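During the no-cost extension, the postdoctoral fellow (Dr. R.K.) reprocessed legacy sequence entries with the updated structure-token encoder. One reprocessed record is reproduced below for audit purposes.
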Amino acid sequence: MPDVPSYDDLPDGLVVAGADGRVVVVNSAAERLTGATRQRLLGRPLAEALPLTDTRGRAWWDCIDPYGGLATRTGHPEALLRLGRHELLVTARFVRGTGRGTPVTAVVVALRGSAARDRLDRDRADLVATVAHELRSPLTSVKGFTATLLAKWDRFTDAQRRLMLETVEADADRVTRLLSELLDIARIDSGRLEVRRELVDLPAAVSRQVAGLVAAGEPAPRFVVAVEPPLPETWADADKVDQVLANLLENALRHGAGTVTVTVRAQPDGPGTEVTVTDEGEGIPAEQARRVFTRFWRGGARGGTGLGLYIVRGLVQAHGGTVTLGAAPGGGALFRVVLPPGTPPGVVAVREAGEDGPVVDEEEP
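Re-encoded structure tokens follow.
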């Protein structure tokens, strides 16, 4: 018979007081957050066990009065409160009997550390700063060139006008790419990313990305594409696979050095397909390896939004695949993407994202 989960398995702190207002349940997370042992808290009045104060220094329990006041109240929404020198996010639920206006039989208190919200606030601030910085340069360029052309059109030759318009187009593409990245992040974080599967030719997708980089000015000898047949079929979202490959290649070019090698082969220990992208640069230090797939990670001072690898991870996991970082034989970075075969056709909706990756639901068309 499987073990029954206990209150100690909850990630948040839990404190429950009975009808008499005394604490009857304390889980291990609550012990950690309050700094008090279970034995010290059990049996004490709730206001003494958790002497919470609001931002004005007022005793919180006196303000909300869970066992008195309006008989229609069912709880209190999450609030940032102080417990001694610590700040906690606290939510209270008032459990009543079946009849309307019946007295409170229990008060359930959920506790969370404020560090998670602080990190979220910092991430939002970083995102705003990153977007503002990345948008300023191309928009300034677009504004400058268009204003110059409008004011002095007749003074330029056709070749000069064409060069200016090509620069404006490139900057507009840069803005569009950034906005697409932001939309992808929003969908990944909110669990609304959809994957529309079709049969994908991975070697052809790699060749297209390399050809595009060569056409944009990268020297062709810098790329090596190796395909090891036979390859299993891969049913995936072709656009998102292209995005994954583009981000990995751009990362290798921006932060790596030497030859960039892309290898496509069958997964050695499974049914999927493996794509590796390696370079001959200095590689990524071990102390940074755990952060490369997080938002705003930048490997050095060569620019970029720091969002590309985070998006790669979200897109690959939406397919049920994995992406990992290792060391290339030549000392550079090695990114390994494994995509499962998938099932044709259909829509995969990512309904929940977490640290271990999104949870995936499949829907038939």
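The CA atoms of residues 226 and 263 lie 5 Å apart. The mean pLDDT is 83. The remaining legacy entries will be reprocessed before the final report is submitted.
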